[in-house]
Amino acid sequence: MKTIVLIGAGKSATVLIDYLIAEAKTNNWKFIIADSNREQILLKTKHSQFAEAVQLDVTNEKQRGDLIQRAHVVISMMPPALHFLVAKDCVEYRKHLLTASYLDDKMKSLMDEISNRKLLFICEMGLDPGIDHMSAMQIINSIKEKGGKITSFKSHCGGLVAPESDDNPWHYKISWNPRNIVMAGKAGAVYKENNEIKNKGYSDLFNCSNAILFDGLNKLAYYPNRDSLGYITTYKLPDTATFIRTTLRHIDFFKGWNAVVHADLSNETEVIDVAGLTFLKWSSAILPFVNDQNKSMLEFLGLFDDEPVPSTAKTSADILQYLVETKLKMEPADKDMIVMLHEFDYELNGKIKNLKSGLVVKGEDSLRTAMAKTVGLPLGIAAKLILNETIKLKGLHIPTVKEIYDPVLKALEEAGIKFTEN
Asked: Residue 217: is its pLDDT beyond 80?
């Protein structure tokens, strides 16, 4: 019996679990879910007979090895730092592996072994990275096949709150890992604009309002995301004058978060003494950056509350994460929203043309979120396509090749995840 093993049953796994339970039932496959919290698995599977719940300490070599040996395909939804443990066992026991995380140097070190053992490892198989790669490459190759030359490429993506659940001045609620939100942009960004390489430091990232225009989404703006340059070669666009990958937020979000960054309230390296420390005292460095545009936002976040900070906090980032999780949490009936937008300028038959391709996905509630859907479904669909041998590729990949993106995008469209163009 063909077996899929999912390691990690956190926030982003909910819709993936639903999908794979249905596929296990239809195809008579075995589906095993492993997590440190077995009760969380059973809550998400509703004790389905088509899913086996396993309690796992992923750092325990024997437990991990015994589990992976049972699989044909492994999906790792662990934190990125733990993927390599899973990956080494997948190589050892000759199992295919899927992750939604960025392809890193540790994973690349396994490239030869993966190829030699005729395995398929796909990283960056989620939303961003993931759906962004697949949808962009499909358009890029389509333009090139017509004889077009792409001169500008901008790719934007954001996990946001749906308008009907937007009831706070930040216009934002947490639908994924809150630590990632607190740390977003720490490394700065590098990208290409009008044939110039641009570097932006952390303190400059949110000091902008680069608005986008697409089907009523005119209240959204972007900031550059990480290192865009590395994808110029991947996307085969060496001569493109502008190449940038970005993160979307509501325009107002920048006004508040820019102050937070400049006050160094996201510092995760400097240990602080929390004894007798209040939010008001902790956040005092932000006072020079408070203005009429952001004051209500910072008050809403609780920065000026004269109450003790969490006693477990070790750094400012810990305190900020607590406030973000507490003040910007999703209520049970809340809906989140994913927005993705690709913008192309290209030359074709002597004319300059523009193309925008956008995706908007809304969640059902605070559990079956748009984030969980768009991160989880590409992984589940890829696992299915590997098991039924639609994808026969081998080696270490991200989903920028036609053999992966064509069938996955088709299946996503059938699931209602569909781009519109203008």
From this structure: no
State whether 195 and 324 are in the same domain. Answer: yes
Burial class (CB in 10 A: 0-12, 13-18, 19+), 232: middle
CA dist 100 and 379 (Å) reads 7
Reported pTM: 0.91
List pLDDT tens digits, range 283-319.
Answer: 999 999 999 999 999 999 999 999 999 999 999 999 9
Residue with tokens 């820019």: 258
Q: What is the pLDDT of residue 33?
A: 97
Span between the terminal Cα atoms of the chain, in Å: 46
Helices 402-414 and 131-145 meet at what angle, rounded to 10? 110
SS3 400: coil
CA separation for the pair 16, 7 (Å, rounded):
12
Pair (135, 91) in one structural domain: no
Range of the domain at 120: 3-128+368-421
Whether residues 288 and 144 share a domain: the answer is yes
Could you tell me if 241 and 268 are in contact, meaning their C-beta atoms sit under 8 angstroms apart?
no
Residues 32 and 103 in one domain: yes
CA angle 11, 369, 328 (to 5 degrees): 75
- If asked whether residues 62 and 89 sit together in one domain, one would say yes
Residues 115 and 10 in one domain: yes
What are the percentages of helix, strand and coil residues in the chain, rounded to 5?
A: 40, 25, 40
DSSP classification of residue 331? P
- SS3 of 43, please? helix
